[in-house]
Specification:
The chain has 207 residues and is of the alpha+beta class. The chain has three helices and eleven strands. It has helices spanning 2-16, 19-26, 28-90; strands at residues 100-103, 106-109, 113-114, 117-125, 134-137, 147-148, 151-152, 160-163, 173-180, 184-189, 201-206. The structure holds copper (II) ion (CU).
């Protein structure tokens, strides 16, 4: 029976022990009274703390914005460098823009990025009507070229004609030497009536 008594005794002891926390709970109320003045003080402390928190948050916000700007600039440089690498691979300047093929209503150059210099290339008319090839140097977009009766005003402002030649009959070809020694944007275009408006041009970049 001692074996059964001892667990009971232990359980009795265990049952006897709870009153201690209860006593602590009973001591609680005075503590609440003790906390009461603190609670009156706390709002100020909280206000002070929230002020400090605001200051810290503001500082953090500034820091994060600076970091964001830093990340933004680094992020913008990353695509920039990617663009540089892609442009260098895609736009390795060719020695010549030609051969140049004319048709209704397209100017097709073998290369659209050419190394600066005097270049010689062949032009052929693969179309069924007459065409010509003019070369202009201009910073203007093709859509901004000066017009005269709907065609490019060849002596108009903002463009410089650097190459002209005889019209090409269908099936004809000619060899042309053009001065592309100044880096910039050039327009290879057919300016027979209505052909430029029909989109018969190609932009060539000289580097
Ligand atoms: Cu044409």
């Amino acid at each position: 029976m001692t074996t059964t008594d001892s667990p009971l005794a232990q359980s009795d002891n265990a049952m006897a022990s709870p009153p201690e926390p209860l006593e602590e709970l009973q001591r609680g109320p005075p503590r609440k009274d003790f906390h009461a003045p603190l609670e009156r003080v706390r709002p100020r402390a909280i206000r002070f703390d929230s002020c400090r928190v605001r200051c810290v948050l503001a500082t953090l916000a500034v820091l994060f914005s600076l970091i964001a700007v830093g990340c933004g600039s680094s992020a913008s440089t990353a695509p920039g460098s990617a663009l540089t690498t892609s442009s260098t691979t895609a736009a390795t300047p060719a020695a010549s823009p030609g051969p140049v093929t004319l048709s209704e209503f397209k100017v097709q150059t073998a290369a659209t990025t050419v190394a600066a210099g005097k270049v010689t290339f062949q032009i052929s008319n693969a179309g069924k009507v007459q065409h010509e090839l003019l070369v202009f140097k201009s910073d203007l977009a093709p859509s901004a070229y000066p017009l005269k009766d709907g065609n490019i005003d060849e002596e108009g402002p903002g463009i410089t004609k650097v190459s002209d030649g005889d019209n090409l009959d269908p099936g004809a070809s000619q060899t042309r030497t053009a001065d592309l020694s100044h880096p910039g944007t050039y327009l290879f275009v057919c300016n027979l009536p209505g052909h430029f408006k029909a989109g018969m041009y190609q932009v060539v970049t000289v580097k």
